[in-house]
Structure formats: structure tokens, C-alpha cells
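Two proteins, back to back. First:
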Amino acid sequence: MLEGHRERLIGKALKHGLESFREHEILELYLFSLIPRVNTNPIAHALIKQFGSLYNVFNATVDELIKIKGIGKRTAQQIILFPHIARAYQISIYGEKLHFSDLSQIGQYCVELFTGRVNEAMHIICLDAKNRVIKNAIVAEGTPSEVYVEPRQIIEHVSHTATSSVVLCHNHPGGTLMPSQNDIETTQKIKIALDAIGIKLIDHIIVAKGRYISTNVNNLTF
């Protein structure tokens, strides 16, 4: 009976996608391969009841997840790895040789960079004279509410490269797109430092809940 239920749920997902699935059904489906030969329906219900949403389940910690009956350490680790796998999948769409023709493309790319991240982090995207990405790296990672970056950290990343211009992007896990006063001041300091070595700061993009805002286009920091 259990195997038949699993086959029906998998068949439904393959044929129609997950749009009609409730969140506990999506979790139940995901748990099939992690917890074989066990009815994962009550476990999925318990996870949603405890954490409130699919998003919160996948962004919980191992210690939080193993408190749920039926979730062991290995299963918890696989659950929290899922957002990282999703992020890698989204980024791979762009291929290895990235080239951006306009800011909107960079903005959407930045959204993908922060899929599943629960702490604020600062990314630097270094572009050559033809707007091809020659480097993409995390400069710093902070807490869910802040990240601190010094201009020298940015300079270290562009030194000894063919960088012509830079795009900064960082996330606000709390959901607000507007830059904080610290965001504005940090951006201005970094711009001055880059100007001094002949590198242009094109934009500082802020990402929150799958959306982004260009602080340059919206005249928020430049």
C-alpha cells in the first residue's frame, strides 16, 4: 500500500508538476528517497506544523530538524543541503562564460546567487571591458540582519585581475529591498576606493525574497 501511494504521488508530480501540491505533499515527496520504507506523510505534516512553511523547513538547522520524530541527522543534513543544490542549479543556467548586456540581466543573476541563503552576504562580480564575468566571489558573510565589508576586501578581489568594472550585490533575508544607512555609506566608500585605482563601480544590487533593486538605477547610493 505504501509503495503504491508513493508511485501515485511521484506519477502525479512527473505528469503535472508541483503547482497543485500542498507544501506537506512536496515535503513528503522529497522525503521518499531520504527515508525509504517509511510513511513520510506524518513526518512532512510535523515539519510544516513546527516550522510553518516549506521555506522555513529547508532553512532550519540540523539541531532543529532532528527534534522532529522520524528525522535523523543524515536526513536533516540532506534537507538543509537542498537550497544549496537549488542555487547551483539556478546559476548553472547561465553557463560557465557569463556575459551581461544590461543591468536587468545582472540583477536576476544576483537573485540566483542568494537562493537559500539565510545570512546576509556580499558578492563581488568583476567584469572585463566587454562586460564578461571574470570573477564572482563572496567577499563576506554576516548574520541574518547585517554584513560588514571594508573597501580593502574589495580591492583584494580585483587586484591582479583584468577587472574593468564591478557589481556588488548583497541580500536582505528579512525581506526589505531598501538599503540601510550602513549599506549606503559602505557603497560610497567602496566606490571611492575603486575610483582611485581606475575601476568603475557599476551598481550595488540588493536582493530580498526573490526580488532585487538596483541602487544605481534608483539613485539610492550613487
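And the second protein:
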Amino acid sequence: MALDAKSEPNRSYAYITAIGEGTYGAVWRCKQLDTGRFVAVKCFKAAHTEPLIKNLALREVRMLRSLDHPAIVPLLDAFRSASGRVYLVTHRDIKPANVLLDVSGGVKLCDLGYARSFSCGVRGSEAMSPYVVTRWYRSPEVLAGCEYGPAADIWALGCTLAELATGAPLFPGISSADQLWRIMRCVGSLPAGQLARVAADPRLGKVLRAPLHGRSLWQRLSGVDPGLLQRLE
């Protein structure tokens, strides 16, 4: 159900319009009354009633407060309304996607609800859930259920860049098995450890019995700038 920003106490922010809405919340364009600047206010729909969503909201607040980088959306404020809903206030002119462009063309990363701090070593990797990122951008090690780390973000970034360059998703799988099949048809077989995990998973093992010959990355992205293709590889 869509949230009604006008019915919520605005706590120094004047509602202007809705920007977007997702599974766990909505984003509104608002005006900060004491400064006059335009900001994006993110409201978590049920953080006041659902423990899972509350944990996501708190994690995103902690993560954003710990980060200070020009390519990450800054957290300006976080508060609860009288109804108990949780709000985050981030930078101006935000758009309903996780990779944004600001007015000067700078790239900003947003929506860190699923972000985790990462420390080298097995312990840090094992603490991370396999349910991360939209399926189309999951790396092979995540799909196979293996340990993973920052390289999974690099994979997702590559898929995002390819989509920006072509206007279409690179691997639009309809299931985890289909996602792996599409990846392997394009980039080839997986490392031995990942193949072993796939073979042992009854949901994924059928991928190894399917024909894997397909177009290479260069063939699929033949119209893309060669410099970008080299980076994607």
C-alpha cells in the first residue's frame, strides 16, 4: 500500500512529490524548511512493526553514518514520525535506482540496506547471506552458494555498466538456475569449487546438463565501446 506523505508529521520537511516506491519503502522529494534545499526522504513502510525491516533500516543508518565518500549518497538525517515510521534523509534529487547521477554528472551509490562491512577472512564472508542483490546482477559465486566478498560487487557493477551501454539487462534470468546458465553460456565454465557446489544443489545441477555454447561477451556487446568491453572482461 502506498504511503501518504501528507498525512505524516513532516518534522521540518515539506512534501513535494513521490519519486519512487519499492518493497520496503518509498522515496519522496521534499524541501528542508530551515535551509530551503531539496532532499530525498526515504520512509520504511513497516520498520515500526516488522523486525526484518527495522533491522534493514538500522543497518542502513549505521552504514551511511560510517561512510564518507563522494560516490555514496550522504545521510543528512534520520528520524521517526509520530506514527513510529522510520525516515532517512539523503542527498537532493535522488532517483529510484541504486546508482544515481547528481546534477554535475557525478555518480552516487544509494540504498545500502543490504550492505555489509567486510573484513578479510572466512569469518567475514560466512556472515553474509546468499540472498543479495536483484537476481540479474548476482555473481556466480553468490548464485552457487559459495563464500563471497567485494568481487561480487564488481560483478554487479559490470552487469550494470553493460545494461547502461545497451539499454537491456545482460543476464535476465528467470530463476537462479537460469541465471547461472545464461552466465556460463556467455563467459564459460565456472571454477572447480563453484561447479562442485552447483552439482550438489538439486535446484542448480540441471545447469550442468544443458548446452552451454552461446555468444561471447564481445559478440553480445559488439556495438559497445572497446574500452568499456575490456573493463567488463
